[in-house]
Design brief:
Length: 222
């Protein structure tokens, strides 16, 4: 179980205000690729596929949307919120996300590999699989979330915190970590133990995962 420690990382995540100025009521049909989407408020709608590839999304609010496949590959997303949305598949590969909030959402597979995420909070969300391979994540907070697998292989994680968050599998092969706070995470399995340098954990967490650490060192346990 997570245990708050008096020892803090040298640098904690800095989250800018993600509240945008969404004021233009819009339909999902207004969300399309390679366009400037500015100040849109899209709520209580359904769609099979939404394609926002390479779009510029600024000061938008998406609420209670149900989408089978959401694509925002190479999009730039800033000061935008997603609240109570559902998507079976979410593709934000190579996207730039800054000063944004994802709250109370549920996603199946999220492909965020090679994305750059700066100053964002993911709160109260359920994510079955989160692919952050080769991503750059800075000032990112997961709060009250349930994550099936966080795949951070080959990523660069700086000032990332997991607060009251359940992570079934944390994969960090060849990941570079700096001030990654895992003390609030309920961890069940860690892959890539060698990359834990630059993280903060509690003694209790380390004890609970002793068998995982031992296997990574080639130590037999009985």
């Amino acid at each position: 179980m997570p245990n708050n420690s008096h020892t803090k990382p040298s640098r904690l995540p800095h989250l800018p205000d993600a509240t945008g100025a969404a004021c233009i009521e819009a339909r999902i049909a207004a969300m399309y690729a390679a366009e400037d989407l500015d100040g849109l408020h899209v709520a209580d709608q359904r769609a099979d596929v939404v394609d926002m590839t390479a779009a510029a999304v600024l000061d938008c609010a998406f609420e209670r949307l149900s989408i089978s496949t959401f694509v925002a590959e190479r999009a730039h997303i800033s000061h935008t919120t997603a609240d109570g949305c559902r998507a079976a598949a979410c593709d934000v590969r190579a996207a730039g996300v800054e000063a944004s909030l994802v709250d109370g959402c549920a996603f199946g597979a999220v492909q965020a590999n090679a994305a750059k995420i700066v100053g964002a909070e993911v709160r109260g969300c359920r994510i079955d699989y989160l692919n952050c391979r080769d991503a750059v994540c800075r000032d990112l907070v997961f709060r009250d979330c349930t994550i099936g697998e966080f795949d951070g292989n080959d990523a660069r994680l700086s000032r990332v915190a997991f607060i009251d968050t359940d992570v079934a599998v944390l994969s960090l092969w060849h990941t570079v970590c700096a001030d990654v706070d895992l003390r609030g995470a309920r961890l069940h399995e860690i892959r890539g133990v060698d990359s834990l340098k630059g993280t903060t954990m509690t003694v209790e967490q380390i004890a609970d995962l002793a068998a995982v650490f031992a296997r990574s060192l080639g130590i037999r346990t009985d």
